[in-house]
Amino acid sequence: MGTLTLLEGLGLLGILVFGSLFMRAKKRGRKKFPLAGLLASFLVCVTSFGGTILQPNGGWAAVFGPANAPAEGSSEAKAPTGVLKAHFLNVGQGDCAFIELPNGQTMLIDAGNPGDGENIVHYIKEKGYTKLDFLIATHPHADHIGGMAEVVKEMDIASVYMPKASASSRVYENLLNAIVKKGLAVHTAKAGVSLADTAGFKAYLAAPNGGGYEDLNNYSAVLKIVYKNNSFLFTGDAETRSENEITANVKADVLKVGHHGSKTSTGASFLQKVSPSYAVISVGAGNSYGHPAQTTLDKLKAIGAKTYRTDRDGTIVFQSDGTRLTVSLNSFATDGWVSSGAPAVETAQAAASESGFAASGNVSIRSVDKQAELVTIQNAGAASVDMTGWTLVSKTGNQRYTFPEYTLKAGAEVTVASGKAGGDLAWTKNDIWSNGKSDPAQLYNKQNQLVSTWNDSQGTE
Known about the structure:
The protein is α/β, with parallel strands linked by helices.
């Protein structure tokens, strides 16, 4: 047997420690072992021994390979475009942002709720990408990492960033399993970590700055991206405690508002430091938390920020050439110049088709077969309806299906299938409706206006 490398030795040590913890728990008579906790202990053991020797940024763990090694078979980055695109995906009551970087690389920040993974992967691949250069899990809550295990399985991943925080959920366990199975390195997401620093383009973490938080939200990775004269700040669910600990420059043109617009985030002093021209709130329609809080909306209005919301505007896309910001909202787009914090002058470029909107009133959810995992949607009108970009929502689970390019002909029906069901359109392989709970279905058009609701007892409204 040859001499072990440092990395192999650390891996062996981690396995021994992991095994010791397992056997000790077994001797104490425990019948069940929290796999997420054991995996996290294993990763932390390797980190504690290796520390900054393995990763210059003090990475979380380099479990099976070099910290910056791309996934095996990963595709090369696209040629630099000189354009940055930030896609705030409409994932309901959750967070997900896909970033096309000006150097041709890609980044995904969070991945919505369980069941969103397939749609997120589809969205990214439709843009022509099979690789993510940066995958950031801001914190281990299910509405932020719910679809991330699927993303890890289906995409080539070059690097993963997560804060030193864990959860005892099956969602977190699934993510750890996917990371370990793919042999990915996990870097610690914390203040001071630089992801990129080239001429005209920077990406760095401004939080978390501490530890020992009672609320996992305060472990949220806060990321700032700077491209020439334009900048973006992504805050996860960071609350006022974390916001007040930030010492980095957080001034930004575009702010992804913390914690879905909750009153526990976006403190007045922090908002003054950011001084955004635009604010984006990722939030689910009719959510039970009352997000966004009116106090948050009032503060954003008072500071002069133009606020966009995924529950009303759908998926929101900002495009920057380093000086000019363009905002697209499904079939809507607004154009503006943002430079050195100057307010943008917006001009509407597209409007909803009156005839198309009128036609959408003839479309409704005819039935939801919870056992068969099949939703039937009917067009009772005399004209075809373009359903591209429409959204079907499982309200209880906050799970959403976005229609691909699709036209529902007059008098016709279309079925949307989940689980093992077969239908005209496939949502996900996971069960959506057979959850033993009341679960209303809602249908929104591409202007994010509610078109139809189906209730368990009352049927369609």
